Amino acid sequence: MEEYPDELRTPPIALACLVGCAEVHGLITSHLHSQQPPINTIALPDFSKISLIPPKKPPRESSEPAAGIFRRDWLSKHRTRIPAVVAALFSSHDVSGDPAQWLQVCTDLENLKATIRGRNIKLVVVVVTLSGHKGLLWTAVADLANAYYRDEGRRIKVRLEKRSFSSMELNVRYCFKVAVYAEFRRDWLEALKLYEDAYHALREMVGMSTKTPPIQRIVEIKTIAEQLHFKMSTLLLHSGKVVEAITWFCQHTANYRSLMGSPEVIFLHWEWLSRQYLVFAQLLETSSADVLHVPSMVSVAAEKPTEWEFHPAYYYQLAASYLKEKNVSLEFALSMSEDVGPIDGSAESVVASAYLGQFASLTDDEYVRYALAEGKRFQDSFEIIALLKRSFEAYSSLKAERTAAYCGLQMAREYFAVSDFGNAKQTFDSVASLYRREGWLLSLWEVLGYLRECSRGISSAKDFIEYSLEMAALPVTSDAFEPSSKDCGPAGPATLSQRAKIHNEAFEVARGESELNLKEQNTELKVNSDYPLYLEIDLVSPLRVVLLALVAFHQPVVKPGAPSLITISLRSQLPTNVEIDQLEVQFNQSECNFIIGNGKKPHIAAISNIQPGRRVETAPSLVLATNKWLRLTYEIKSGKLIQKEVACLAQEKRNHSQPNLHVEHISCPKDQSEAPSDNIQKIQPSFGLISVPSLDVGDSWSCQLKIKWNRPKPIMLYVSLGYYHQSGEPSLQKVHVHKSLQIEGKTAVTISHRYLLPFRQDPLLLSKIKSVSDPDQIPSLALNDLTMLIVSAKNCSEVPLRLLSVSIEREEDNDACAILPQHEEFRESIVHVPGEEFKKVFTVIPKLNCTRLKIGTVCLRWQRDSRVEEQFDSCGSASQVTKHRLPDVNIELPPLVVSLECPPHATLGNPFTYSVKIHNRTEFLQEIKFSIADSQSFVLSGPHNDTIFVLPRSTHVLSYMLVPLGLGSLQLPRVTVTSVRYSAGLHTSPASSIVFVYPSKPHFEASDRRETRRNSVVAE
């Protein structure tokens, strides 16, 4: 979307020209630009510069064929060079006093009128005085600009209605111009309709014979279609019509997906299609709903979009896919082309035409060579990576891990294609972690194949061997089924023979026999006996599929000094047998460690670097067959009371002689009780010590623990009980028993709030109709109008609470805002059961117009229900205060307030009055458009739609007579009121437009009885 010009990406803004009195141009320009809607200006210092306004071109001959559809600079010209209004500024001294000065004023005005007369530009004469009337100037300029764009649109619209055009190009052009003029006037509905008409007229031009070469003709049509669809999508998305915009986009891509053009330049079609998805994704990402209030009147199919089509990530992914398709087509076209050098003629000949989507003086052959030459200049891989990265991040934020992994895989392939092995490896690693977790073996095989090549590219022998061993151990297909190598990545098909080949390659690198076939020799890849390679396999390592190691003690409890048996079980899932040279078993006490040597290799079994006193055992054979267990049982003996724990199994594996590969199997403690005692000593000072009396057999002892949370965080309650078997023999060793319990600390009460407008009353707040929404925008309240503040308090604990009082503490002057009631003490405490929500209604009346008004802080005082917690003392029932600060609000004076009036109930067949009151609180005359929809439940009498004018500081009442035709709760006819000045609509909410209809006039007996009882008491 950044490639589009500014005049296309932003909505049109009216343009005015200031002539004369250059010293006030800055003041007037800043004021006009700050208003809503804003007005841009051209500043001419004196009247001699009025020739800068371009004159109107002579009308074209009706028989002359159109050279193109849209002029490239037409939109920019009307936004920056052709004003709608010219403001002639004269000083008050120029119009009073010297007759010569007055004559000069008249001359300047005549010259100015002669210049702008041909374009029907409006003229306003401004006399500059010391008294400020900037507001009146903006009103006059805005009204005249609106009239100019309305007249220009009507002038061209007459041609459309009379169909006074000689070609379809002019039909599309006229619709586009009228739509732009409607956008200038902020008439979004008419603009959307005319853009749609232009789009459909353009579709009829496909296949029509013209003087333009066929290839360039398709390029021009698709360029115009792209611009028209961009305009329609922008209007729909920024008005909150997301479903309609998505449906329109699907129809747009379906219309032009098959319009590929000539095979020589089919890559241009894929590039165009990729750009459609990219731009729509950016629009969907930046659009804000409920801004322009455009009614849904576009004629699109009623198919409901899928869930993914509402997310920009979906379109970024497809944009990258089509851009990759473009690269493939471009490479094929370049391979088939004989000459892709520069085209004949000078470089200046390949320039853009005056019409959008055209190139000047090019045949189709020249254009094809030019397009191929331009395609060679740019490399799209980095743009593809950027698109896939945005899609990957968006899917990840949506917790769509599998789709994100697919995008990550495509992104990593692009990194790999441009030899960026570092980023490729990082991305492949994240994808492989998901494939391992979910067991996608063939997909994991492909990714691991790429990771092997990335490790080769970054000169990492360790990573190369790890990925190779993991691939060799995968339980994938046999040789009976060999998939296509193209679908399996650089490692080839996942067959048993390929696994064995990768297995052998890994051990060749580990023994230093292979250099990974690099073009440039790198000594870091060479593994030798002086610097063996260490691989660690822990509980979460991916290499667990390569080698499994289990350790089992034959006795769970062993006396100090008594022998015990231990069995070590090893299993390999590699496709060929693996012979272990040396196996070392390590404990958490080093004196228990021992080494197992391979009896078939006596020169290796006679280990020379063993520490003195280290125990050495010899096994008859240490060969691991595929998927078969090798079990070794040995006797161990401890000299003191310990907790046996195998800390590490260290192995040296090989296929042949040199032991260059060292593998360690690490086992971690299962819980905190197995951690070293130093960690316990560090936290011991925070424990509370409690004395426990002596206990005989069968006795019990307990204590109560009271915990008070300062913050809602979970805690771990850890109890350690130390005791002796006999208190009279202190020489016995102390025994410890441990117990832990995790307790969640929860927030007892959570407070929320929301603001509600008075029933059947809707003020127009200008801050809510900004063209760009701010995520940090604060709520707005109407000045001097009643607003209800609803405060909700929810009991999130598991015990009943008692609510004592609620109040709002003010932070600023009490005169800025009135809050009723400000403090309420409940006469009887309210029982608040768990999960229940308590609501309190406050009345807020702002009295000060300011951008940030501090409302205050809600304070809720409560305590635990003492009837339930009788076992606790007074500290348990002490009152607590929960506070919730209300965010600052924006106070503004609404220019318009719409209120509805109707009786609370009605009777079947009896008419009643339904009134709509429009209050104008400004000093300006307000133009109001209103409409009321028909309802099947009522017979309606009154105007359905019209335009009215509401005088300043006055109220206009629209009265309707309704006759109900049904019973029960009926929806009143929906009323829509639109302000032309502010381009905003006010709609009645469904809740405020309901009336209950009785079959006959109701008689409320309860009220009658109360009235009778009251009369009888008075009579007595």
Topology:
Elements: H1 6-9, E1 14-19, H2 25-34, E2 39-44, H3 74-80, E3 85-91, H4 99-116, E4 122-128, H5 134-162, H6 168-184, H7 188-203, H8 214-237, H9 242-256, H10 266-286, H11 312-336, H12 364-377, H13 381-397, H14 401-417, H15 421-438, H16 441-457, H17 461-472, H18 496-510, E5 533-537, E6 547-553, E7 563-572, E8 578-587, E9 594-598, H19 602-605, E10 615-619, E11 623-624, E12 629-637, E13 646-654, E14 661-666, H20 677-683, E15 715-723, E16 735-743, E17 749-756, E18 761-763, E19 780-782, E20 787-795, E21 801-809, E22 817-820, E23 823-832, E24 837-846, E25 857-864, E26 880-885, E27 890-892, E28 896-901, E29 905-907, E30 912-920, E31 926-932, E32 938-941, E33 945-950, E34 954-964, E35 968-971, E36 975-979, E37 984-987, E38 994-998, H21 1005-1019
Parallel strand pairs: 1-2, 1-3, 3-4, 5-14, 9-10, 19-27, 29-38
Antiparallel strand pairs: 6-7, 7-12, 8-9, 8-11, 8-13, 13-14, 15-16, 17-20, 18-28, 20-24, 21-23, 21-25, 22-24, 25-26, 28-30, 30-34, 31-33, 31-36, 32-34, 35-38, 36-37
Helix pairs in contact: 5-6, 6-7, 7-8, 8-9, 8-10, 9-10, 10-11, 11-13, 13-14, 14-15, 15-16, 16-17, 17-18
How would you describe what is shown here?
- By secondary structure, this protein is of the alpha+beta class.
- Among the domains are: 1-186, 3-Layer(aba) Sandwich (Rossmann fold); 381-525, Tetratricopeptide repeat domain (Serine Threonine Protein Phosphatase 5, Tetratricopeptide repeat); 533-669, Immunoglobulin-like, CATH 2.60.40.10; 749-768 and 777-892, Immunoglobulins (Immunoglobulin-like, Sandwich), CATH 2.60.40.10; 896-998, Immunoglobulin-like (Sandwich), CATH 2.60.40.10.
- The chain is 32% helix and 24% strand.
- The protein contains 21 helices and 38 strands.
- Strands 5, 8, 9, 10, 11, 13 and 14 form a seven-stranded mixed β-sheet that branches. Strands 18-28-30-34-32 form a five-stranded antiparallel β-sheet, with no helix packed on it.
- Helix 19 (602-605) links the parallel strand 9 and strand 10 (615-619).
- Helix 8 runs parallel beside helix 10 and helix 9 packs antiparallel against helix 10 (266-286).
- The protein is flat and about 125 Å long.
- The relative contact order is 0.04.
- Mean pLDDT is 80; it is low at 288-302, 343-348, 518-523, 655-687, 871-876 and 1007-1020.
